[in-house]
Structure formats: C-alpha cells, structure tokens
Write a structure and sequence with these properties.
By secondary structure, the protein is mostly helical. Helix content is 81%, strand content 0%. It folds into 2 domains: 13-91, no CATH class; 94-129. It is elongated.
C-alpha cells in the first residue's frame, strides 16, 4: 500500500494508537447500537405507543378542563335540582307515605302469589292439572 501525499503519516506513538483504537471502538459501538435500535421493531412500537398514551392523557385533561370551565353554570343547576329533589323526598306527607307503603305491599303480595303458582305448576304433572 502506498502512502498518498495528502494522507497524514501513521502515528508511531503507542499511546496515540491506543487512543485512536478506543475512539474507533466507541464510534463502532454507537453505530451498532443505532442499527440495533433501528431493527428493534417491538421496542420502537412500544415507545411510540407510550408517546401516544401520554398525548391522549394530555388531550383528555385539556378537554376535561375546558368542559368544566364551560359547564360550570350547568353543573350548578344540576346541584340545585338535586337538592330540591332531596328536599321533596324528605318533605312528603303522611298520606303519600301510606299510599307508597300500600302499593309496595300489594306488589309484594302479587309477586308471592305468582311464585307460589309457578311452583305448584312445576310440581304437578301435566295430566293432573
């Protein structure tokens, strides 16, 4: 191999040669790591998925903040109506309570009668009905 006039002469100092070898190894290691990262499809997909999750969470947080800011008066109306409904439920008259209790008892009796008829129909053979 001939030396070209533009090429620098090879260093003869052993420390300089070792330093160049270490630098070349580091460059080669970085290149191999970059190629390995490029061929690691699963890792790239997982990294992209993690980035997408973060972006989705941020978008959801922004939308929630925006919706709460715009829905402030609507939420206040809902709270007022809920409070009024609770107040109406606690301020019922004795007559209304009696009617509610009687209707609940009637429904319970009807359910029990229906269950009893079904059980009786299941136990009795078809030719004895």
């Amino acid at each position: 191999m001939t030396n070209s006039p533009t090429a620098s002469p090879a260093p003869t100092d052993p420390d300089t040669i070792r330093a160049e070898i270490d630098e070349t190894r580091a460059d080669l290691g970085a290149t191999v790591d970059a190629l390995a990262a490029k061929t690691d499809i699963r890792g790239r997909v997982q990294a992209r998925l993690a980035d997408t999750r973060v972006q989705a969470r941020q978008a959801t947080a922004r939308a929630t903040i925006t919706a709460r800011g715009k829905a402030g008066p609507a939420l206040e109306h809902t709270r007022v109506y809920t409070a009024k409904a609770r107040q109406a439920a606690t301020n019922t008259s004795p007559r209304t309570r009696a009617i509610s209790a009687a209707s609940a008892a009637a429904v319970l009796v009807l359910v029990l009668v229906g269950v009893r008829r079904r059980r009786r129909a299941v136990r009795t053979p078809w030719y004895r009905r």
